[in-house]
Amino acid sequence: MERLQKVLAHDGVASRRQSEKLIMSGRVKVNGTVVTELGTKVGVHDQIMVDGVQVTSETPTYVLLYKPRGVISTANDEKGRKTVVDLVADVSQRIYPVGRLDYDTSGLLLLTNDGELANRLTHPKYEVEKTYVARVKGIPSNDAMRKLRQGITVDGETYAPAKSKVLSHDDKRKTAIIEVIIHEGKNHQVKKMLEAVGYPVEKLKREQYGFLTLKGLNAGEARNLKPEEVKELKRLTGLLS
């Protein structure tokens, strides 16, 4: 027997947290009965339905996408805008993004139907590093970079120390290229941190997620993760020893 939200996540319905919201909002039925209690356990012979659609187990699928700017990091969008799932329409399994990249941010995004792995990858406890490269207005001072490395608080939100360095700068245009490495994934985190130290972001790209890179991909392209890459992600998050 497994907890209902864990089964929903494992079967690719949504992430663990999103599955909990589905349950609490009364959108999940088990054997014809609406279930709203998160502690509910189900077995292999129980019939589970979400919004009237029966949940079936799917083959675990792991996709690495080079997200372009102007695409929504969600499975569907009420406004009809293009989503990251639209870019991997040839994948037969129902997958969803692990975390998010802003609409105007490009770079590496993982999509999967493995809810347990997705939950751990987005949890700061496991400290999976994410590397961003930003073009900012102004040329950062040593003091500003030191603040990023020490961790800062913005509007009551505390951000953990970030590894950061200036890669290059353009004195004429008064802009700089900065690398920022974080292990959290808070909303608009890199943008807020850089703006807080006085250097607003003009352009942002996620270059790396853990050991994974965008090598060999152009914007809008995707590839399946190799079995050894999936195993390494599971090792990083404690799912494999």
UniProtKB/TrEMBL annotation:
InterPro entries: PsdUridine_s_RsuA/RluB/E/F_cat, PsdUridine_synth_cat_dom_sf, PsdUridine_synth_RsuA/RluA, PsdUridine_synth_RsuA/RluB/E/F, PsdUridine_synth_RsuA/RluB_CS, RsuA_PseudoU_synthase, S4_RNA-bd, S4_RNA-bd_sf
GO CC aspect terms: cytosol
Keyword line: Isomerase, RNA-binding
PROSITE patterns: PSI_RSU, S4
UniProt GO BP: enzyme-directed rRNA pseudouridine synthesis
EC number: 5.4.99.-
Source superkingdom: Bacteria
Gene3D superfamilies: Alpha-L RNA-binding motif, Pseudouridine synthase I, catalytic domain, N-terminal subdomain, RNA-binding S4 domain
Domain named RNA-binding S4: residues: 2-64
UniProt-recorded Gene Ontology molecular function terms: RNA binding; rRNA pseudouridine synthase activity
Family: Belongs to the pseudouridine synthase RsuA family.
Name of the protein in its database record: Pseudouridine synthase
